[in-house]
Amino acid sequence: MSLQATTWQTVGPYFRIGLEYLNTTDLAPAGTPGEPVTVEGQILDGNGKPISDALIEIWQANASGEYGGTVDNPVDGAATVFSGFGRVPTDDEGRFSFSTIQPGPVAGPSGAMQSPHLAIRLTMRGLLRGLSTRMYFPAETLNSDPILQLVPEQRRATLIATQKPGTPATLQWNIEMQGERETVFFDC
Amino acid sequence: MNQNPDHDELSIGIAAPVVPNSRPSQVTSYRRPYPGTQPEYLHSPYVSSIERAPKQPLIKLPHTLTEVTGPAFAPALVSPKTADLTRQNGREAIGERITVSGRVLDENGKPVRNTLVEVWQANACGRYLHKRDQHDAPLDPNFTGQGRVMTDDYGAYKFLTIKPGSYPWRNHYNAWRPAHIHFSLLGPAFATRLVTQMYFPGDPLLPFDPIFNCTADDKARNRLISQFDWETVLPEYALAYKFDIILRGSDETPFEVQR
Ligand SMILES: [Fe+3]
After folding, report:
1. Contact (CB, 8 A) for B195 and A11
2. According to the model, what pLDDT value does residue B66 have?
3. Chain B CB contacts of A12 below 8 Å
4. Is residue B208 part of a domain?
5. What's phi and psi for A110, nearest 5 deg?
6. Which residues of A135-167 are buried (b: 16+ CB within 10 A; e: fewer)?
7. How close does chain B come to A38, measured CA to CA in Å?
8. pLDDT the model gives residue A26
9. pLDDT at B258
10. Which residues of B are known to be catalytic?
């Protein structure tokens, strides 16, 4: 039997009503093993204007590099169990912020290990189909990561968060849809 | 001999030492879309795509453990109440009651079991319960337009809801969306995520809607139209529509073996 996957359609424009019960600001409840980290960023369109109706979904491994977990109802935006999944909307200024733990390295193709990363799926009004990208951590060894190797060198920086000055546990990572610093998106 | 040049990414070997505790890294990728069945990001009749669609080519990502895994969802996220959008606090929403049911299968025809199906929609008058919805149509205090269910062992799901109305939007002169219900599914893996919209048969607005008309392949597009289903009509209570959803299936082509 061979079927074709259903066609994507945009989430917009009033998407939040059906998805927001799972919105999360903290993916890792207290006591989750791993290094706590907060990620802050802004999502900008081709005119540099903030995108206030975007949603990012995060999928990540735990601190040991293992995937898997069960999503339950978050309480006040905080997960009650660490599942590795999070759903984070942008605010009126196009900003998002969430806390989690840094994942461990994950097995990659042909025995190569992948550097710690967050898999990100981005949806918004105007995107007929979700986009996938990744966020990597600045303090990690990145030049052996098999996926970053596929990205032209001059564009790799768009996938790597930067340390927020003065706040070591906070990273900054913006998503730009177009322009000179257009984020690398993957055909996933 | 690799028979399918589209799926050879897993052989991109970046020479790296084998880490003693690494888990098996051979994963089965998901199928890539059949040409024309998924929208292009830039679709200029849909004006919002112009400033938001990426301009650089997407980089083809081999499916790794990251892409072939995904979260499970607790049964507590759904209840009979989340499957019934027609009442709030015991009071009934206004409009034409309908059931929407179908099966979630993968491209290989296998049922996708215990997967979360999330839906949202406008009310019978074409108004969303959302602060940014400025359409001058009444809100219904007994209709939130949000629901979710989990598929059963056959991949089947079912909602009871109100048939949504059309609503105007500002994409182009006199633009109205055909009636639709938004669907969101995560499926078994990061790579199987799907957000789509279900339409109704015979809607006169379909030919004018740039979102519905986003794919080159008209058969793929027409599969977004639900079917009126006489057999599951609830007599003297609710009309019924069927909508099957297909998630990506794993590419079961056996990988190359050295001869
Ligand atoms: Fe809508």
Report:
1. yes
2. 97
3. 48
4. yes
5. 50, 40
6. bbbeeeebebbbbbebbeeeebebbbbeeeeee
7. 21
8. 97
9. 40
10. 128, 167, 177, 180, 182
Q: Is CATH 2.60.130.10 correct for A23-176?
A: yes
Query: Which residues in chain A are contacts of B209 at CB distance < 8 A?
Result: none
Dist. CA B114–CA B92, nearest whole Å: 29
Contact (Cβ atoms closer than 8 angstroms) between residue B250 and residue B31: yes
Residue B57 lies in a domain: no
Residue B2 counted as domain residue = no
How far is the alpha carbon of A169 from chain B, nearest alpha carbon, in Å? 24
Q: Which domain holds residue B192?
A: 71-248
Q: List A54's β-bridge partners, or say none.
A: A124
Indicate the domain borders of chain A. 23-176
Give the pTM: 0.92
Number of A/B CB contacts below 8 angstroms equals 281
**What was the ipTM of the complex prediction?**
0.96
B130-153, pLDDT tens digit by residue? Answer: 988 889 999 999 999 999 999 999
**Residue B167 belongs to a domain with what CATH number?**
2.60.130.10
